[in-house]
Amino acid sequence: MLDIERLLAAPHGTPLSELADRDPPVVLPGVDQDEDLARLSGSLKAKTVAERSVRRRFLRRIPWLLIGLAGAMVSAGIVKHARGSRLAGPSAGRSPLIVRA
User: Fold this and answer.
1) Tens of pLDDT along the chain (101 residues)?
2) pTM of the full predicted structure?
3) Are 27 and 36 within 8 A, CB to CB?
4) Which of 7, 10, 58, 69 could form a cystine bridge with 14, CB 3.0-4.6 A?
5) Is 15 left (phi over 0), alpha (psi -120 to 50) or beta?
6) Domain-by-domain residue ranges, the chain?
7) What distance in Å separates the CA atoms of residue 27 and residue 40, rounded to the nearest whole number?
């Protein structure tokens, strides 16, 4: 396995065999999946994730969760505005599929 950071930081002409991880992470049955995901992503070592408190993990994740929530709210507002302007014509509130006699 080869980390993109190591590949981009390597001097030109470095063989890939020198950059590759000789002991790549392996997912084993029965091991906590959070540890596996952290190790496979390369962001943290599995032991580091297991040692962090729930509070610390929450505090590190909450800003990104709030950014995602804000993005979802902006997207919903855009969709609502687009639907509102489309329905503002003479047939506002009426379905074009219903024919009244």
Assistant:
1) 787 888 888 888 888 888 888 877 676 777 666 666 666 666 655 556 566 678 888 888 899 999 999 999 999 999 888 887 655 555 555 555 555 55
2) 0.38
3) yes
4) 10
5) beta
6) 4-74
7) 8
